[in-house]
């Protein structure tokens, strides 16, 4: 079966349950960073880059799925995740599904 890489437009964890934990952890740590940095946006930016890397290591922000091949399997994914964008990776040519979870 063909494989497809899956990401979220937001950069959050792909798995639905893991994403709930990701969002909670991100918000808690974001609030702590904001309290620590105050109005120092340069420092806050640096800390948020570190937080992003930390969470990307802890949660699967890129997943590999079997490519859906039936209307039923696509419908199930759309019901669970919402809208997708289908594209290819510029360098590798791999098929990419991007969950559009930010909005347009």
Folded structure, characterized:
It is built from three helices and four strands; from the N terminus they run βααβαββ. With 104 residues, the protein is an alpha+beta fold. The chain has one domain (3-99). It has helices at 16-37, 41-58, 71-81, and strands at residues 3-8, 62-66, 84-88, 95-99. Strands 2-1-4-3 form a four-stranded mixed β-sheet, with no helix packed on it. The mean pLDDT is 94.
Summarize the structure.
With 104 residues, the protein is α+β, with helices and mostly antiparallel strands. It has three helices and four strands.
Question: How are the SSEs ordered, and which strands pair?
Answer:
Layout: E1 3-8, H1 16-37, H2 41-58, E2 62-66, H3 71-81, E3 84-88, E4 95-99
Parallel strand pairs: 1-4
Antiparallel strand pairs: 1-2, 3-4
